[in-house]
């Protein structure tokens, strides 16, 4: 599916008259943590694809696992426990790799494949991330994993930037040779495969710069500066920060910074993002964003004290599941009127973000800018609530697909990064983020007590397998 999608995009660009020969370098991004398993012998097929055929036809026999595990998978709890135990506990794993063990992280996904189907693992010569997989297609050979996306695997020592032997050994045998050596995110991996010059007219000199994860690429696209906070409202909601001296903890992730190998990015991921908003939009607003936004604006900030937690699937931050609604007296209620439900959802999602960002040590300061991206950043009514809850202005960039824009920025940066030119320098003439909304007067006073209440109530809804009131 992924290879065919690439074929279709390039065919569409070709038929729209895009001049491929002008492209000097390209990079890209893939959803983080997902993995692709190349069958033994596939490298030869990849190196020798015929430009007469669409790529997906040539590569269809190349994969030892046909359905790639992606970030939404959470079936690896036992592998996570085993990994943490093998390296001396959750905090120790976080200190090495930037995160305690998470179900979606690639090392645990690989461990599951190995333990359930050792034969399939044996037949696999190379394991790519989604990002390095896409880079491999352009390179015509296996592309290395970059430091930043590699930090989402529970396998990379984020300080030394090498695979951790104890983590590799705990996941599967012979893993190092299947992963290849990780590289700095700005690396030029080589030139484009002849397939693309012959079929689409790319220049044979077009450089392929290492691909990275969607969130790291968004950090580049938004030209995040220290002190800013980026909030991506895509399928998942993510929040990320540029960080100089991180302290990995039991919550959140520390990744190598994709645009500056000396620094880091902190990331929090909220699984019940857009899909949850879409579900409530369906239940309460006839499936229309317009109706959803009108209902949101028709209710007052603070929702008269009504608060809600909306987790259709087990949440990552915090670990909780189910729908939990509380009235102003903290009594659990079974339902809200439609408009109240919509506001409770949006205010709840943003209060959780502020509370968990502050737990990471982030402080909202007078100079704080929130940079919003992803599909829901088109929606100003949603952004207004974000601004009010954080009491900070929200900025957007012209293209809501900041991961894609960031990939283009990273491609240009890759051409000069070895000369110590920063990404900020390379893209200094790009348009600045635009102010979208500012906080409503009085928002801070209104939300301060609500944030405290929300944090206290969150403790009550956190997943506890022995409690009967949780699984709805
Ligand atoms: N006007 C809107 N208001 C709220 N959400 C929206 C709006 N338009 C699109 N979305 C949401 O944006 C999401 C897609 O965002 P996108 O950044 O493209 O996702 P991904 O993270 O998968 O790349 C959809 O799930 C959709 O719910
Ligand atoms: O798991 C995470 C981040 O840790 C996700 O953010 C994935 O990177 C994919 O995100 P979407 O593009 O589907 O929102």
TrEMBL record:
Q: What does this protein do?
A: Phosphorylates D-xylulose to produce D-xylulose 5-phosphate, a molecule that may play an important role in the regulation of glucose metabolism and lipogenesis.
* Gene, per the UniProt record: XYLB
Per its record, how is this protein called by name? Xylulose kinase
Which keywords, in A-to-Z order, does the entry hold? ATP-binding, Carbohydrate metabolism, Kinase, Nucleotide-binding, Transferase, Xylose metabolism
Q: Which GO terms describe its biological process?
A: D-xylose metabolic process; xylulose metabolic process
Could you tell me which residue ranges the Carbohydrate kinase FGGY C-terminal domain spans?
A: 230-413
The reply on keyword Transferase is yes
State the source organism's domain of life: Eukaryota
Coiled-coil region list: none
InterPro entries reported in the protein's UniProt record:
ATPase_NBD (IPR043129), Carb_kinase_FGGY (IPR000577), D-XK_euk (IPR042024), FGGY_C (IPR018485), FGGY_N (IPR018484)
The Swiss-Prot or TrEMBL record describes its family as follows: Belongs to the FGGY kinase family.
Please provide, in alphabetical order, the Gene Ontology terms of the cellular component aspect for this entry. Answer: cytosol
CDD domains from the entry?
ASKHA_NBD_FGGY_SpXK-like
Give GO terms: molecular function aspect only. ATP binding; D-xylulokinase activity
Give the signal peptide as a residue range, or say none if absent.
none
Residue ranges annotated for the Carbohydrate kinase FGGY N-terminal domain, each copy included: 70-221
Give the Enzyme Commission number: 2.7.1.17
Q: Which reaction does it catalyse?
A: D-xylulose + ATP = D-xylulose 5-phosphate + ADP + H(+)
């Amino acid at each position: 599916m992924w290879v065919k999608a690439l074929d279709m995009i390039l065919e569409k660009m070709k038929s729209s008259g895009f001049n491929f020969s002008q492209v000097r370098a390209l990079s890209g991004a893939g959803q983080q943590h997902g993995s692709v398993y190349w069958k033994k012998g596939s490298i030869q097929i990849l190196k020798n694809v015929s430009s007469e055929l669409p790529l997906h036809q040539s590569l269809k026999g190349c994969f030892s696992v046909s359905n790639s595990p992606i970030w939404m998978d959470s079936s690896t709890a036992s592998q996570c426990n085993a990994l943490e135990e093998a390296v001396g506990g959750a905090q120790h794993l976080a200190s090495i790799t930037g995160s305690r063990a998470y179900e979606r992280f690639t090392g645990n996904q690989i461990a599951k494949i190995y333990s359930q189907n050792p034969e399939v693992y044996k037949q696999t010569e190379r394991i790519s991330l989604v990002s390095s997989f896409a880079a491999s297609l352009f390179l015509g050979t296996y592309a290395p994993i970059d430091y930043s996306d590699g930090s989402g695997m529970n396998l990379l020592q984020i300080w030394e930037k090498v695979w951790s032997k104890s983590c590799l050994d705990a996941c599967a045998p012979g893993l190092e040779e299947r992963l290849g050596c990780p590289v700095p995110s700005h690396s030029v991996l080589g030139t484009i495969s002849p397939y693309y010059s012959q079929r689409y007219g790319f220049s044979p000199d077009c450089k392929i710069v290492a691909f990275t994860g969607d969130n790291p690429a968004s950090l580049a696209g938004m030209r995040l500066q220290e002190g800013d906070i980026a909030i991506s409202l895509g399928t998942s909601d993510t929040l990320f920060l540029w960080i100089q001296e991180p302290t990995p903890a039991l919550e959140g992730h520390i990744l190598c910074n994709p645009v500056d190998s000396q620094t880091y990015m902190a990331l929090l991921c909220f699984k019940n993002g857009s899909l949850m908003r879409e579900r409530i939009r369906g239940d309460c607003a006839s499936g229309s964003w317009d109706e959803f936004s009108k209902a949101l604006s028709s209710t007052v900030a603070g929702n008269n004290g009504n608060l809600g937690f909306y987790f259709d699937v087990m949440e990552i931050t915090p670990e909780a599941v189910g729908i939990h609604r509380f009235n102003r007296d903290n009594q659990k209620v079974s339902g809200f009127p439609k408009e109240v439900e919509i506001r409770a959802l949006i205010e709840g999602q943003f209060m959780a973000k502020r509370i968990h960002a502050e737990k990471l040590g982030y402080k909202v300061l007078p100079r704080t800018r929130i940079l919003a991206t992803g599909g829901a950043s088109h929606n100003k009514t949603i952004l207004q609530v974000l601004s009010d809850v954080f009491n900070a202005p929200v900025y957007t960039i012209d293209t809501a697909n900041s991961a894609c824009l960031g990939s283009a920025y990273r491609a240009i940066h890759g051409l000069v990064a070895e000369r110590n030119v920063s990404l900020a320098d390379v893209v200094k003439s790009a348009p600045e983020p635009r102010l979208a909304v500012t906080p409503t007067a009085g928002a801070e006073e209104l939300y301060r007590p609500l944030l405290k209440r929300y944090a206290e109530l969150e403790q009550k809804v956190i997943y506890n397998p022995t409690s009967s009131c949780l699984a709805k």
